[in-house]
Design brief:
By secondary structure, the chain is of the alpha+beta class. It folds into 3 domains: 70 residues, Uridine Diphospho-n-acetylenolpyruvylglucosamine Reductase, domain 2 (2-Layer Sandwich); 112 residues, Uridine Diphospho-n-acetylenolpyruvylglucosamine Reductase, domain 3 (2-Layer Sandwich); 88 residues, Uridine Diphospho-n-acetylenolpyruvylglucosamine Reductase, domain 1. It is built from 7 helices and 19 strands. The strands form 6 sheets. The protein has a 5-stranded antiparallel sheet with strand order 6-7-12-10-11. A 4-stranded mixed sheet has the order 1-2-5-3. β6 and β7 form a beta hairpin. 36% of the residues are buried.
């Protein structure tokens, strides 16, 4: 028997940038890990499943999502200090809460201070700021596969963070272990303040923004040879400023891989705008970009 909450034909509302009220076929909030395993196992195999935190880098299209959304709430929000500067964190924990708890333990996650959403979402998108990303500190995660099986995914099993993210994409992350840098609480407090200030300076001109919008294709999918840019930002800087006059969406080479907007209504045009950027990179730079923002459902 499923113990969590299952809502059918549910309208999701969020203050996140990319969707207001959007329909999903099923919304499931599991009570615990065994509950999630049971749900995944019993769900018909043809039904797509997507884990959703706060939706900070997700677009649910106007046509809704004909599948199941799994949302992990505070029941999956644990934080445990481990030896060797490691922490075990629940995938449903808010990044801002985890940053504060780590800081009090003398451990540095301050680069996530202004990253919205949950730790599960941060890991699956390799969130970060100011040159640091959570993938750099990831050791392993407990995940639930589409068939309900539990699997531990370890960083050392993959050649790159890119490979790791590909393998995490088809799972629901339940918890993860991170190995963090140590510092004094006083130094971390100052770093936290400085990063928040820098974030405000960088993003204050536009009230709304995406997380990282694009990524390089996984190597197995990439058909292009030379020149192959090692980082998405290199391609976007080379492309230069890119703005859509109708929607006011903007790509700024000073802050590459972030799409800025003046209002939420602009995001109706987001997918079209981003595809135009991808086309420009393909034609002018011979560089293929994939979306890092996740689009769900029908247009």
């Amino acid at each position: 028997m499923i113990e969590g909450n299952i809502d059918v034909e549910k309208k999701i509302h969020s203050e996140a940038l990319f969707y207001g009220d959007r329909g999903v076929q099923q919304l499931f909030q599991p009570a615990h890990m065994a509950d999630l395993r049971k749900f995944m196992y019993k769900l018909p195999k043809q039904v797509p499943v997507k884990a959703l935190g706060t939706g900070s880098n997700i677009v649910i299209r106007n046509g809704g999502f004909e599948g199941a959304i799994v949302m992990l709430d505070k029941r999956f929000g644990g934080f445990e200090l481990l030896p060797k500067n490691r922490v075990r964190v629940g995938a449903g924990a808010l990044t801002t809460d985890v940053v504060q708890k780590a800081k009090r333990c003398g451990l540095d996650l301050t680069f996530l201070a202004e990253v919205p959403g949950t730790i599960g979402g941060a890991i699956s998108s390799n969130a970060g700021f100011n040159g640091k990303s959570i993938g750099d500190y990831f050791l392993r995660a407990t995940t639930i596969g589409r068939d309900g099986t539990v699997k531990t995914i370890k960083r050392r099993e993959f050649l790159s963070t890119e490979d790791l993210l590909v393998n995490l994409a088809d799972t629901v992350i339940v918890q993860a272990i991170l190995e963090l840098e140590q510092d004094t609480p006083e130094s971390l407090n100052q770093r936290y303040i400085d990063l928040k200030h820098r974030h405000e300076q960088v993003y204050s001109r536009y009230p709304l923004k995406t997380g990282h919008a694009f990524c390089l294709p996984h190597r197995s999918k990439n058909k292009l040879s030379e020149p192959f840019l090692s980082h998405v930002a290199d391609a976007l800087v080379s492309l230069g400023a890119f703005q859509d006059s109708r929607s006011q969406l903007r790509l700024d080479p000073d802050h590459p891989n972030i799409i800025f907007a003046k209002s939420k209504s602009d995001f109706e045009e987001l997918e079209q705008f981003g595809n135009k950027i991808r086309s420009e990179c393909r034609e002018k730079l011979n560089t293929e970009l994939d979306w890092k923002i996740k689009f769900l459902g029908k247009k």
